């Protein structure tokens, strides 16, 4: 005769019933098996067949275990006693968690997590986002200690304020250690116009002395000479002609602009900053294209609006007046000055808006030059300029199609959002599991909650994989980007897609309108669910719950 | 044709069957399962994997009470109706009669 109690105990597994009920249940089920076994023997079956028939009464022991517990205790089986696919006693959830942690060991996955927008963050607010005050201080201190000029230059370039003492000291020390870094003076000289009280001229003079052929320093000087002009622009009610004449009457501004427009070179030091940022970021462990890209946005640029005013001054005031008074050569010289400046500006630019500004200079100049050249009989030159102008118009503003990059960005953002949410849920699940492990039954409903949340680790793994695969085509070390243009074209559209979706502006417009209706719907749903539950509880005869 | 589907049996109110079998005397689980099959002449068969959870649930509700007793040298858990169980049985039986009567009346008319 088989030991039926032992068989039931083994097949049923752990059954955490109170007050000795477990042993009673085991004994009762064993009696059932034994009776069926004896009946089979009595019917002529051999022992093996009798055992088989007896055990066939209970096909699914796990289901029986769950049903018995539910019937006796009135609640579901504790999460630590469950044997379902997602139960913590089973391997799959822990394998899923381990695989998710393994993903963290892959640099591309870490890079993908870093690219994700942080709620409340602004990608243009790069300094505080990536380099908090403490981090910059650490870089500065280590740069000081090791006499490492490039790290100090990095601090000067990326400190939030140009007139900050740390910025100035870091720039001074960097240039003293390596005079080839004098170009960072452009950053320190760059003042916000509405905040006078700081003299940027010493830095501009230093830059001019170091790179005298470059028109950039003169553009910065022109800006510095009239800082505060934007408030005056507002006062003129945006009448561009008035602003232009007002600026043109500013001698220091006009002189600096003349020098900028006649300087043989134009270099905003984009390539130098790109190389420096890339190197220091890698040294600091920030091997992230998004950080490098956004870091370039903090690059010092002259005021393009003021520059355009000077272009208009040359085209409309100087050129037109000379032409009207019959001084064709003077007019041509003014137009040519603008055209050459446009060409130099184009060579120094890589952002679309910069290239547009450069093209505008050239177009305006060529359009004025062509009739004058014809009037002088220089038809070949006029025809050449006409073809150049036609080519400029054809190229125009071409927005490349970024459908693939935007789609990838949407996948990355949605899966990233899922990763964030599921990470929170998984942590909550782990906390609940820990609580239930050490203090079972301490919180009513916690077992049920933990049971429901058991699916979170697997979903977290799936979301992490989606994030990883969505980002993978863009996962590159910043060392692989050889120029800012390559970074801008290869990574820029994807990055802007990540920050452009969903349109938070539209969301904030819609949210107030759907907020209260949503609350009401949720309230009705909760009241309905409670009513159903109550009605079910109050029914005189309970339906079969099996 | 015998109704072997557990679900169909439950639809036919499994609780009523068990309460009815316990009305006159206390019985153990094995006996209850056998009696359902015998008295229904094989039409109803109770899956024992559902029988015991159902018995435990009725016990938790206070409709039946289980006690260990020795019979023929073997310890068995016998279930008997409680006062609440008897009241519930009367209600369920009344409802069943009303339902079966109504169905019968319709079926008889159709075949008359």
What does this structure look like?
The complex is a heterodimer of chains A (546) and B (112). Chain A is an all-alpha fold. Among the domains of chain A are: 4-74, no CATH class; 503-546. In chain A, 71% of the residues lie in helices and 0% in strands. Chain A contains 28 helices and no strands. The longest helix of chain A is centred in the last third of the chain and has 36 residues, at 403-438. Chain A is elongated and about 130 Å long. Mean pLDDT of chain A is 84; it is low at 540-546. Chain B has one domain (6-111): Orthogonal Bundle (Arc Repressor Mutant, subunit A), CATH 1.10.10.10. A 3-stranded antiparallel β-sheet of chain B has the order 1-3-2. Chain B has helices spanning 6-11, 14-21, 29-39, 48-61, 83-111, and strands at 27-28, 64-71, 74-81. Chain B contains 5 helices and 3 strands; from the N terminus they run ααβααββα. Chain B is 61% helix and 16% strand. Chain B is of the alpha+beta class. The chains are: A mainly alpha (546), B alpha+beta (112). At the A-B interface, α2 and α4 of A face α3, α4, β3 and α5 of B.
Based on secondary structure, the structural category of chain A is mainly alpha
Please state the average pLDDT score of chain B: 85
What characteristic shape of chain A results from the CA principal axes?
A: elongated
How far is the N terminus from the C terminus of chain A? 32 Å
H/E element string of chain B?
HHEHHEEH
Q: Number of DSSP helices of chain B?
A: 5
Considering the protein shown, what is the CATH homologous superfamily of chain B?
Winged helix-like DNA-binding domain superfamily/Winged helix DNA-binding domain
CATH topology of chain B: Arc Repressor Mutant, subunit A
Radius of gyration of chain A: 37 Å
SSE order and pairing:
The complex is a heterodimer of chains A (546) and B (112).
Chain A: H1 4-12, H2 21-42, H3 47-55, H4 61-73, H5 91-104, H6 107-115, H7 126-130, H8 133-146, H9 149-158, H10 165-177, H11 185-189, H12 201-210, H13 216-225, H14 229-235, H15 240-248, H16 251-262, H17 270-283, H18 289-297, H19 304-324, H20 328-348, H21 352-375, H22 379-395, H23 403-438, H24 446-453, H25 456-471, H26 484-490, H27 492-500, H28 504-538
Helix pairs in contact in A: 1-2, 2-3, 5-25, 6-25, 8-9, 9-10, 12-13, 13-16, 15-19, 17-18, 19-20, 19-21, 20-21, 21-22, 23-24, 23-25, 23-27
Chain B: H1 6-11, H2 14-21, E1 27-28, H3 29-39, H4 48-61, E2 64-71, E3 74-81, H5 83-111
Antiparallel strand pairs in B: 1-3, 2-3
